[in-house]
Amino acid sequence: MAERRKLVAGNWKMNGLRSALPEVQAIVAGARGLGQVDLAICPPSTLSPMVGEVLLGSPIALGGQDCHASANGAFTGDVSAEMWADLGARFVIVGHSERRQYHAETDAIVAAKAAAACRAGLSPIICVGESLAERDAGDTLSVIAGQLARSIPDEAGRPDTVIAYEPVWAIGTGRTPTLAQVEEVHQAIGRALDARFGAAGRQIRVLYGGSVKPDNAAQLMAVPGVDGALVGGASLKAADFLAIAQACA
Ligand code: PEP
Questions:
Q1: Whether the predicted model's global pTM rises above the 0.85 cut
Q2: Which residue of 17, 94, 148, 212 has the fewest C-beta atoms within 10 A of its own C-beta?
Q3: Domains of the chain
Q4: SS (H, E, C) 67-123
Q5: 166 lines ligand 1 (CB under 6 A)
């Protein structure tokens, strides 16, 4: 299997006022010497220009939490991939389960957003994951296969695309799948990317997300096929985010 450098991306969701900027400064300071892992922070849109300034000159990338499929237009409240790129972002999350659930985003919408990210020169972090009912019904692998097929546009068949496997029932709940369950899904995602995109697909990183914390990160990050983490709650505190990054490095 191709060697892929691990990536830890922090998704701040709708959290963080200007008073949170010292956490970003602490992450920048603490990340010095963490050579073997890529890091990204995805703050809320309002904080992004300020976070971008703090990250300037550091190896930590800025990411958006979502983007619109269009480059511009009459879409009140939305942010385009081009706007993220203009701000210096390198990544944008698309298809997070909270967007799928609360904003009724379908796989087709997610694919259009991922294509927009590629158009703007960003790396999309495309999220997939099963619900608890789907897991309990034994449908996890078929659900993930369908989401991958429909949510990844052809344009995203390139090495800098990122997939995040996030079981919906593990997000923000403190519950995680067993290591064997994580490995089973990551191996299946790897096979699907290989089958569809060949050599480029083998370079696509597949992150695990869902209640990654400092005390379980080392175990989760050691699972074959896990190329890093998408971290929600634990990314809000510099010490926790850095401990997770350390577990990857
Ligand atoms: C997420 O929202 O992407 C996530 C993984 O959240 P948490 O780490 O809080 O479960």
A1: yes
A2: 17
A3: 20-248 (3.20.20.70)
A4: CECCCCCCCCCCCEHHHHHHCCCCEEEECCHHHHHHCCCCHHHHHHHHHHHHHCCCE
A5: yes
